[in-house]
Amino acid sequence: MRHIPPLTAHLMGVDTHEEPIVFMRSDCAICRAEGFSANTRLQVQAEEHSLIATLNIVSDELLAEGSIGFSDSAWEFLQLTEEQPVHVRHAPLVRSLSALRKKIYGHELNPLEIKSIVHDISRRLYSDIEIASFLTASAAGHLSSAEVTALTRAMVSSGNQLHWSGAERIFDKHCIGGLPGNRTTPIVISIASAAGLMIPKTSSRAITSPAGTADTMEELTEVDLSLKQLQDVVEQTGACLAAGGEVGLSPVDDLLIRIERALDLDSPGQLVASVLSKKVAAGSNHILIDMPVGPTAKLRSVEEANELAALFRQVAKAMNLQLRCVITDGTQAIGYGIGPNQEARDVLSVLRNSPEAPPDLAERSLFLAANMLSMASGETLDAVLPRAREILLSGQAWQQFQRICTAQGGLKTLQEAPHHCRLRAQRTGKLLGMDNRRLAQLAKLAGAPSSPLAGLRLHVKVGDSVIPGQPLATLYADTPGELAYARDYYHQNRDLFDIGVTP
């Protein structure tokens, strides 16, 4: 093989998320000699670290002669220092791409093929386009239960795994999503862990919603914990409410979620593998799945929910997990807040038993907590629901939540959004329904979740009577521009609040 002289590393200060990008000058002698052009895939070697990156060509004034620029993620992955010698060559053949092509043509993959794809994604050998191709080929029910099981196992193996001594049963919960404001997890975990269940809860940030549990909890405490910090919190309190990104549990899932977010894609097989891989990696073996169903929720019908629940059960059985799926009402947003800050306000009001706490969020959280207690004890829901209610009403859940937050770095004070406006009814009538998807879109246009103070606060629920000029919701934003943009969307989509005319 012909010797290619090294280039010196330079951090460009370009955030490309997880996609590794390198930059070379248009007059670079190595580019010309090796035939490198824009979008060429290169293997980059820096001492013992190596990855495959996509080449971007820049003008001469942006990069010193003899240098190669790196995006933030590529620099971090290779653990580079400024002017460190770096070797580049044409990328070798990524053998798992043949399995990817097999899947694109609709064929079922065996566990070894799936493992090879996941392994190569974890080593940053796949471009974003290739990851998107895998996700797209796997969408719309094109993964069998055997493939989903193999994908789950491969994703677990891709990162760290937690093991908890002294506890045989480790619990967790997950909501399928698609229902704005459904921020039950902090409340459920506080109730159930106050009752003695061990729950190492890690949550993702929002994929296609205005807030994920991690986004909301970040308004209340530190969530980016190291693996050691997470273990310490659980050992101290019996639970945690952390973000999953920093602890390296199923890290390939984080790479896939980033592309899913860009595609606005959340396919059943990927969803099941994503959820269960994180739970298994966290050491959990008893898992509760909340499945909201409604005409504008992620799951539109009970039949669709039952199909997804069946897939969850098949994969859970293959992995020796105890799993319970519960179908819940997804016809309207839960609580009053939509967006990280507003949802955090609802969580605190329920835990503190405040008079203004949204009753639907409280009751939903009690129902889910009772299901976890039922899984633990084998008793019926009717038998354990009073116990869950007593833990909440007595203040034990609030005390437990404070312990968890203290162990994670302290309870934060909620801030106020600098800009807001009221969204008002135009006519007299009764609120017959609300469009969950467009409500979520409205909150996202206001800036949520990237601007955590942005979002909505609802002032009406389905069944309420309204009159002209009555506030239906308050819109919050960080900037006047975002507020105006979201307000314009509302004016063009007033029917997201379905107000029936009173006879």
Q: Could you write a compact summary of the structure shown?
A:
The chain is α/β, with parallel strands linked by helices and 503 residues long. It has 18 helices and 18 strands. Strand 10, helix 12 (302-318) and strand 11 (322-329) form a beta-alpha-beta unit.
Q: What is the element layout, followed by pairings?
A:
Layout: E1 7-11, E2 21-25, H1 29-34, E3 41-46, E4 49-58, E5 67-70, H2 72-78, E6 85-90, H3 97-104, H4 111-122, H5 128-138, H6 145-157, E7 171-175, H7 185-194, E8 199-203, H8 213-218, H9 227-237, E9 239-243, H10 251-263, H11 268-281, E10 286-293, H12 302-318, E11 322-329, E12 337-338, H13 340-351, H14 359-377, H15 381-393, H16 396-407, E13 419-424, E14 429-434, H17 436-445, E15 455-458, E16 465-466, E17 471-477, H18 480-492, E18 497-501
Parallel strand pairs: 1-5, 2-4, 7-10, 8-9, 10-11
Antiparallel strand pairs: 1-6, 2-5, 3-4, 3-6, 12-15, 13-17, 14-16, 14-18, 15-17
Helix pairs in contact: 3-5, 4-6, 5-10, 6-11, 6-12, 7-14, 7-16, 9-16, 11-12, 14-15, 17-18
